[in-house]
């Protein structure tokens, strides 16, 4: 068994925390995707159980990831517009 195989897999809550606290926008998409995947896997694993506090927390976390993804995409769009300069309504050649 390798050292890598012995490391515990972070739970959905830890991956969510890493996503919402990521400060490097280059890593943010992967953090969001990792957290989303872990939450969805956990939801599937607990789907047959009665509604729990954890399920509500996961729903809240999924909502938070959607907001974070939207903010990230908005940031990218604004950055792209800043790099292109202001839109003066002129046709591009």
What does this structure look like?
With 93 residues, this protein is mainly alpha-helical. The chain has a domain at 25-81. It is built from 4 helices and no strands. The protein has helices spanning 3-6, 12-21, 28-45, 53-84. Helix 2 (12-21) packs antiparallel against helix 3, helix 2 runs parallel beside helix 4 and helix 3 runs antiparallel to helix 4 (53-84). The N and C termini lie far apart (60 Å). 13% of the residues are buried. Residues 87-93 have low confidence and may be disordered.
pLDDT under 50 segments (min length 5)? 87-93
Shape: elongated
Mean pLDDT over the residues: 82
The share of residues in extended strands comes to: under 5%
Number of helices: 4
The helix content is 55-70%
From the helix content, strand content and strand pairing, which structural class follows?
mainly alpha
Radius of gyration: 19 Å
Tell me the number of strands.
0
Mind summarizing the main beta sheet?
A: none
Measured distance between first and last alpha carbons:
60 Å
What string, H for helix and E for strand, traces the elements in order?
A: HHHH
Throw out a few tags for this protein.
single chain; 93 residues; mainly alpha; elongated; disordered C terminus
């Amino acid at each position: 068994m390798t050292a890598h195989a012995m490391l515990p897999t972070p739970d959905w809550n830890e991956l969510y925390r890493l996503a919402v606290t990521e400060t490097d926008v280059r890593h943010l998409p992967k953090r969001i995707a990792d957290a989303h995947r872990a939450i969805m896997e956990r939801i599937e694993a607990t789907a047959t159980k009665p509604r729990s506090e954890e399920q509500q927390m996961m729903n809240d976390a999924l909502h938070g990831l959607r907001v974070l993804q939207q903010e990230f995409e908005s940031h990218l769009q604004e950055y792209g517009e800043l790099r292109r300069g202001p839109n003066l309504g002129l046709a591009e050649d």
